[in-house]
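Researcher: Here's my situation. A collaborator sent me these components and asked whether they could plausibly form a single complex. I don't have experimental data yet, so a predicted model of the whole assembly would be a useful starting point for our discussion.
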Amino acid sequence: MQKEFDPNGYAIKNGNFIGLPYNEETAKIILLPVPWEATVSYAAGTAFGPSNILEASYQLDLVDWKFGNAWKTPIYMAPINASVQALSDETRALAIQHINNLEQAKAIDSSLIDRVNNNSQQLNTWVYEQTKALLKKGKKIGLVGGEHSVPFGYLKALAEEEGEFGILQIDAHFDLRVAYEDFTYSHASIFYNVLEQIPQVTQLTQVGIRDACQDEFDYVHAHSNRVTLYGMNYIREQVYMQVQTYHEICQQIIDSLPEKVYISFDIDGLDPKLCPNTGTPVPEGLEFMEAVHLLHQIINSGRTIIGFDLCEVGSASTWDGNVGARILYKLAVLLGRCL
Ligand SMILES: [Mn+2]
């Protein structure tokens, strides 16, 4: 018989996040790992983000400073799917061949591009089917990447079930490139694909952005009716020049969002000291407490969080897993407040 759950004791490594005593039936929040990193363009390792987070989660203390008994939130992390992992490995090998051709200005083999794009579509279908089935059972879902391309299928399922909603994206990058490196479903293209293919996403609010290409910058300005940018530069300048406090900026950010909010949390939105092994780190991001303060304001505003993803957590050190697990706990608890 399993030992009774003790929120004051050591965690039992039962395969569930933080060792919580729930399963897929009894939990209301399902964390779905997507061990996928086919199109990464810089550092590898985020496919093992979910296992790094799970391992780190066992050493978390359970009291949340805002929601004391947060550990009562019925959270279950699904097992890591071996065939998704295998498809990721296969696709990554193909993508590397194509990226090498590009970087060395060699002839392009279009069959490589086709195979990567087909496999990415397979992944999107898998995520769509998994999340659709869970939503039909009345579960709330947090997707755990993997690279940032993974939530596409989930957002399609959510749009069908929830109708219109807005996305709060915390990220160092816009992720608005059109088929980066020829890969339609690149991690750098996720929100271009979402805005072009999912009309129920009425608003995208991007926070912490500090790396961009010209096309992305132009796209945001051309779609200002649907996309709102709170770049890192703006956030810091407002505070340095004492125009607004950080809290006031958070309120502005929340004001841009509709009643239903999905959170897409790319860990590289945080300062890179908090995510040193993420896929594409960029200097100067949000501090941990700045991110948490912003997330709390969503609840304080009365808006409903309908789902989230956490992506791009690295696996080369336990520190990445430690910070990732803490952010995942916050996100899951906030989703639990909206049941
Ligand atoms: Mn991203």
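Model: Some features of this prediction you could bring to your collaborator: Residues 148, 171, 173, 175, 266 surround manganese (II) ion (CB under 6 Å). Residues 110-136 form the longest helix (27 residues).
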